[in-house]
Amino acid sequence: MTVLVVAVLGVGVLVASSALAAAGHRTQAVRAGDAADAAATSAAAASVGLLTGSPCDVAERVARANGSALVACDLAAATARVRVVVGSGPFAVGASAVAGPADDHPDHGVYGVPVGHRSPMSRATRTRSCPGPTSTTDQGDTCQARRSS
To answer: pLDDT (tens digit, 9 = 90+) per residue, 95-105?
Structure first.
């Protein structure tokens, strides 16, 4: 009986420690992602003059303030690409992020049909192609199905 209790307790401790290790790794991954996002955004802001200092120096300060180490920082025009690492040794977790201005010509489309403020199609053409019945409160921007009450 004692051997069975020890075996059950051993399996329980193994499962609990594995769950705690997985939770710790996930926490580190979230911290790394957040630090990378903040560092990339600050580097992009520094590249266009919103922050003072060299973009990669600013990114390094922000990464350090978020508990991570800046591993790489590349700048192309006003777009910053950074990589940070949180932790050390075998438990280190890295993350990358890119930040910068939006493209001048975004390709927004739904099923191959360009939509958005630069759409070559008229609003009436886009709304007529909506499948199914539309409600009387539909303003033409969406295909809103009627709700039965």
So the answer is: 999 998 876 55
Kindly state the helix (H) or strand (E) to which residue 3 belongs, with its residue range.
Answer: helix 2-47
Structure tokens at 41: 């955004």
Beta bridge partners of 99: 80
Where does 48-140 have alpha helices with state H? 55-65, 123-128
Structure tokens that stand for 101 in this block: 């201005």
Q: Which residues pair with 72 in a beta bridge?
A: 83
Distance CA 105, CA 90 (A): 43
Q: What is the pTM of this model?
A: 0.60
Mean pLDDT of the chain: 78
Flag whether pLDDT at 77 surpasses 50.
yes
Largest CA distance in the chain: 79
36 — pLDDT class (breaks 50, 70, 90): very high
Question: Which residue type, as a one-letter code, is found at position 56?
Answer: C
**Which has the closest alpha carbon to 55: 45, 69, 43?**
43
What sign results for the dihedral spanned by CA atoms 64, 68, 74, 78?
Answer: negative
SS3 of residue 83 by DSSP: strand
For residue 149, give both structure tokens.
């009450």
Q: What is the pLDDT of residue 117?
A: 59
